[in-house]
Amino acid sequence: MDKSIMIRKLYTGLILIGFCLLYIFISALLMGWDILYFWFSIIWVAPLYLIYAPIWSIFSDIIGKKYARLPANQKVVSLLIHILGGGIASLLIVSVSKPLDILKIDVSYLLNILIIGGMFAFPFWIVDSMIVENNKKKTKKT
Hints:
Keywords: Membrane, Transmembrane, Transmembrane helix. The chain crosses the membrane at residues 12-30, 36-55, 76-97, 109-132. Helix content is 91%, strand content 0%. α1 crosses α5, α2 packs antiparallel against α3 and α3 packs across α5. The protein has one domain (3-127). It has helices at residues 3-31, 35-67, 71-97, 99-103, 107-141. By secondary structure, the protein is mainly alpha-helical.
């Protein structure tokens, strides 16, 4: 694995942590959340975007390149695997934070969890794709 790919994924995670912190902080101020909720959110968001998301993103890029033949299909496959990874991450968070809720799970609750996971995975894929396209444009100029 190329070292620059892992560094790019970590930069993507750092960018998204910054956006998440800004969003959570503004939401906390506007909605009057307790500061403890703010720090609890940071404790969950930071490891996901710095550890889990880069590893899953590298996995999805490898699968996308291996099984899709056209470049557009590679991006779609990579996006779908990113969203799957976000759904799995959100299921893991619920199972760790509220293990008894997993036993009482219904379809609407499961879909809500998967959608929330996809909402966190989609920006990671977008920012990473933008960095890749920007790097391609820079290499073409030189």
